[in-house]
Design goal:
- This protein is α/β, with parallel strands linked by helices.
- The chain is 33% helix and 16% strand.
- The chain has helices spanning 15-27, 46-53, 107-127; strands spanning 3-9, 31-37, 76-79, 94-96.
- Strands 2-1-3-4 form a 4-stranded parallel beta sheet, with helices on one face.
- The longest helix has 21 residues, at 107-127.
- The protein is globular, with a radius of gyration of 13 Å.
Length: 128
Amino acid sequence: MKHRVLFVCVENSNRSQMAEAFARMHGGGDVEASSAGSKPSGRINPKAVRFMAERGYDLASHSSTSLADISGEFDAVITMGCGDDCPWVPAKRREDWALPDPRDMEDDGYRAVRDDIEARVKALLGSL
């Protein structure tokens, strides 16, 4: 049985996209990962594409998805520090990682957030 995991942030262009990618990379066939935004930007931040490419993952094929397009129940819903902008989604487990939005960060700061997300995703997958 696959574990369904949803990562949510406001724009679905940085943090939640990277988390989805890491869940796919590290979860293998045991995880169905997706991401969405409460106010999707409609695009993936080019920095996210560039910094995930450093990890061997191509985010260019992803798209910014609205929570309105997400349905069903999840084993885990992880919000990325978006507070009240992230509405309730049915889940067995909910966490807020309170991560800073790296959108306007310099390269080193962006990489630090990316690496933090990867570590958190690995820990999450290990606990499912």
